[in-house]
Amino acid sequence: MSVEAQKTAPAISPKLQGHLAMGLFAFLISFSFFIGKRAAPHIDPAALTAVRYMVAIPILAVIAYAITPRADRQTLIRPKAVWRFPILGGLMGIYFILMFVALRLTSSVSTGAVLTLMPLMTAILSFFILRQKAGVTVLGSLTLAALGAIWVIFRGDINAILSFAVGKGEFIFFLGVIAHALHNPLVRKFNRGESTIVFALWSAIGAGLCLTIYGAPALLATDWGHLPPVVWLCIFYLGTVATAGSYFLLQFGLLRIPAAKANAYMLLTPSYVIVMEGLAGSGWVSLPVMAGALVTVLGLAILIASSEV
């Protein structure tokens, strides 16, 4: 491409940047379910979640310091209204702890399906907190995706749906998803003009403090020298890619597109997890369950194709 062509090439719009960020975010989160399922039996959820933030916070701090202009580093070191970050961090901490508790009780596919209910809950909470109104197409596609998720959660068993025989693990994670859904519109409401990386860093610090206090007994009781390799691999992945990386991508996306639309990318989670588990040799889900996962993808496709996005 010539220099002239490069100069005239259109830049990626902030809206498209937000969509690309959330697409990558969904993949990183899906792999968290895959690897978390394998680590969960070997370590207390509170200890695992606290340690992931101990790994992630220094990484975010180094990145934030490196890319923040010298004139803006005062905001990095002393942000306004520090009270915001324990609230945001506490909500994310609740989500992550309940996620690993649930993974001890149910499958990674089921937890991934529960996660797809988050966009619809986010849309509802965003209306009350931010007065963001989702259009008919957005609500319709999110509702369609939620129906597909419910089908996966109940494993395609119509009798289980009619009797509302939801598993304990799915219910526990549902409570965590509510906390995450509340966190999402609060990101936009609480932002005071900080850059994405600064906001992500302090949100992670807030989560880390809350989780370290809550998980102190589990941290002290864990026999760190005898954990299997899969736990350390999980900690490394969660602390670097899934925490530092996804925190940045989530904040980046939420500040560029409405919260309900950003979190619609969670609809990809059960399909990603089904493929990961199948390729790993854990077995493929039944066709009815797979059909439910594809319905959630259809909901996302409708949302992306809509002019409301």
Protein architecture, described:
Helices cover about 75% and strands about 0% of the residues. By secondary structure, the protein is mostly helical. Helix 3 runs antiparallel to helix 11 (about 195-220), helix 3 crosses helix 12 (about 230-255) and helix 5 runs antiparallel to helix 10. It starts with a helix and ends with a helix. The model has no long low-confidence stretch (mean pLDDT about 85).
Beta strand %: under 5%
What fraction, in percent, of the residue positions are helical?
over 70%
Biggest sheet layout: none
Q: State the shape.
A: globular
Mean pLDDT, rounded to whole units? 84
Low-confidence stretches: none
Distance between the termini: 31 Å
List its salient traits:
mainly alpha, 15 helices, single chain, 309 residues
